[in-house]
Amino acid sequence: MKLLVTGGAGYVGSVVASQLVEAGHETVVLDNLSKGHRAALPDGARPVEGDLLDEGFVRETLAEGFDGVLHFAALSLVGESVEQPEIYYRNNVCGTLNLLEAMGEAGTGRLVFSSTAAVYGEPEEVPIRESAATLPTNPYGSSKLAVDRLIGAVCGARGLAATSLRYFNVAGAGGRFGEDHHPETHLIPLVLKAAAEGSSVKIFGTDYPTRDGTAVRDYIHVEDLGRAHLLALEAAGPGEHSVYNLGNGAGFSVREVVEAARRVTGKSIDAVEAPRRAGDPPALVASSQKIQADLGWKPEKPELETMISDAWAWMRDHPNGYE
Ligand code: UFG
Fold first, then answer.
1. Which residues, judged by CB distance below 6 Å to any ligand atom, belong to the binding site of ligand 1?
2. Can you tell me whether residue 107 is helix, strand or coil?
3. Which residue among 142, 258, 277 has the greatest number of ligand 1 atoms within 8 angstroms of its CB, and so is best to mutate?
4. Burial of 237 (0-12, 13-18, 19+ CB in 10 A)
């Protein structure tokens, strides 16, 4: 297929773009390089630099004709979204609206969208199924939920075939592609940074109603997550919008992540207890039964230590990230 990957120079987008090239798809990467990295463009993919908020550019890009779009480009920091909700809605909702309109004009019939566990807010039941109530607790989650709903409506109205993948906590690296965010706010890269530099990492909250008082998350290897996108390309028929959660179904607490990182790196890693971070739910664990049953997806790297050791290897190969 000929595929357009928005945000294909970012962490998850670059891994998926490289998997698409490897699978023999003609792959075009659209990225504004605000968060993505030029060096994260996979060999064999054609880059197009520009912004989804630029309507004319988006229309022109889609007009060359694609079989499908994988849409990763978005702002994705929960804390930042609380401080700057307008920017989150503009980027995530208006950017997607431009993309959907251009796809409609060009007759592009297939979409895979990067949704998030953040749409569920503080779930009543864990593991979380796709049928759980969607009550996001921050503008990042709300903006992604608004897009999910918009996509559903466009599927109904125009016969688009779309799949939303709701990611839980992505970790690890895929070949020469790894995690390099500025600023970095995610637990695993920060724990590994502390290991590399001999500095400390903060544990945000030790009074959660969990087994050791720290927050529990479901970590999924970025390569496993990537493979789900290739399956998702064919998951929906025209007019259908499929939604799948993507995690391992196992949760690890912040303390367990730090412990695992100590084993992987052989470093002592200083962890300092700190107050809760605003907006963090106590536990987010996915039920991925639906995608396993419908699409035959199965994680190949479910172990937390594998994810941490792949991230650690990437970090040691790229001490300054992509710079
Ligand atoms: N944490 C720490 N110390 C740190 C960083 C994080 O204790 O230095 C804790 C957080 O408070 C949280 C857990 O580690 O309890 C995981 O935090 P991350 O920042 O790594 O990930 P989040 O769970 O906050 O967010 C991620 C994605 C979001 C997505 C969410 C859905 O970044 O985009 O998963 O599960 F919405």
1. 76, 78, 116-118, 168-169, 185-187, 190, 201-204, 215, 217, 254, 277, 280, 284
2. coil
3. 277
4. exposed
Closest CA to 11 of 42, 36, 44, 45: 36
Amino acid (1-letter code) at residue 39: A
Which atom number of ligand 1 is nearest to the Cα of residue 203?
Answer: 7
Average pLDDT for residues 277-293, to the nearest whole number? 93
Peptide bond just before 127 cis, omega within 30 deg: yes
- Centre of ligand 1 from the C-alpha of residue 161, in Å: 31
Superfamily, domain 187-217+249-317? UDP-galactose 4-epimerase, domain 1 (3.90.25.10)
**CATH number of this structure's domain 2-171+220-246, picked from the four choices 3.40.50.150, 3.20.20.70, 3.40.50.720, 2.30.30.100:** 3.40.50.720
Instruction: Give the separation between CA 53 and CA 87, rounded to whole angstroms.
Output: 11
> Per-residue confidence at 127, pLDDT binned at 50, 70, 90?
very high
Reply yes or no on whether 167 is catalytic: no
Task: Supply the DSSP symbol for 90.
Answer: I
Region(s) of the chain under CATH 3.90.25.10: 187-217+249-317
Q: What is the pTM of this model?
A: 0.97
Return the residue whose CA atom lies nearest to atom 16 of ligand 1: 187
pLDDT attached to residue 278 = 82
> What separation in Å is there between the alpha carbon of 187 and the centre of ligand 1?
6
Q: Where do you find CATH 3.40.50.720 in the chain?
A: 2-171+220-246
Q: What is the per-residue pLDDT across 162-201, written as a single tens digit (0 to 9) for each?
A: 999 999 999 999 999 999 999 999 999 999 999 999 999 9
**Best mutation site among 166, 254, 259, 285 for ligand 1, i.e. most ligand atoms within 8 A of its Cβ?**
254
Ligand 1 midpoint to CA 308 (Å): 15
